[in-house]
Design a protein that fits this description.
Elements lengths: L5 E3 L8 E6 L10 H7 L3 E6 L16 H14 L6 E6 L1 H16 L7 E4 L17 H11 L10 H20 L12 E6 L7 H5 L9 E6 L10 H25 L2
Parallel strand pairs: 2-3, 2-4, 4-5, 5-6, 6-7
Antiparallel strand pairs: 1-3
Length: 258
């Protein structure tokens, strides 16, 4: 798998299912290192490293979610070491995960066996006001409002200067994201959200049900937008259970076709 676009935090077990993880706006692949530790050795986390951050900070960020998803989809289709995989996307990453899954389905290629969509309402004809921000001050204020373990880094002007290009690009991508009714996915979906998220209500998150013909599970945790930080073990358990149940179902289907 392309080492430029995907980060692995541990050597996988031979039969481990891959979890492709998509970071939030301004986030990087390293955000999924804690989840990787909780899931190994049963699940191999491969986190997408968007251009314009960490070791790719000198590259131009991608300010278009559809373009980003198309690149990730192509990388997955080109992978000669392909293994069964699922997607996990948090916040903006949920949109990127959904769009990548949609592209893969339309191309008839390998598709995720389950989609975990976290801290993001389902898209619709109207853009969320939280995605359309006029300037850097508004973006930084929005990031502070969302909280998370890294929000105190915004008190350091040098660090702010480093993360702003990626934040600008990601919020530009969110503001420009255009949704239109499309063929529902055939992939099971697990929706995860915090009950006190300031920008995503449980009702908005639950509307992902309409985006798949397969079953949908909604899991609500105490906490805000970055509820995962406080409930990492519980989230890992939801992911592991979802991956195992989906893998068992696929194995059964494969056996029926032998």
């Amino acid at each position: 798998m392309d080492g430029q676009w995907f980060r692995r935090f541990a050597d996988p077990e031979p039969d481990a299912l891959r979890l492709i993880c998509f970071p939030h706006a301004g986030g990087a692949a390293s955000a999924y290192q804690p989840l990787s530790r909780r899931l190994r050795p049963h699940v191999e986390v491969r986190a997408v490293q968007y251009p314009g951050r960490q070791d790719r900070r000198l590259e131009t960020p991608v300010a278009d979610i559809g373009e980003l998803a198309a690149v990730v989809a192509r990388k997955l289709q080109d992978d000669e070491t392909a293994a069964p995989f699922a997607f996990f996307g948090h916040s903006m990453g949920a949109l990127a995960a959904y769009e990548t899954a949609r592209i893969l389905q339309e191309r008839g290629g390998p598709s995720p066996r389950r989609l975990f969509l976290s801290a993001r309402g389902a898209p619709g004809p109207q853009r969320s006001p939280h995605d359309v921000l006029p300037d850097d001050d508004a973006i930084l204020a929005a990031v502070r409002r969302l909280g998370g373990t890294g929000v105190t880094l915004l008190d350091d002007p040098e660090l702010v200067a480093m993360v702003l290009p990626a934040l600008r690009a990601d919020y530009a991508a969110l503001a420009a994201y255009s949704w239109a009714p499309r063929e529902p996915l055939h992939t099971p979906v697990t929706v995860l959200c915090g009950d006190a998220d300031p920008v995503v209500s449980v009702q908005e998150a639950s509307q992902w049900r309409a985006f798949t013909r397969a079953e949908t599970e909604v899991r609500v945790f105490p906490g805000g937008h970055f509820y995962v930080d406080q409930h990492l073990d519980d989230v890992a358990e939801v992911v592991l259970r979802g991956v195992r149940s989906t893998s068992a179902a696929w194995a059964g289907n494969d056996a029926c076709h032998d």
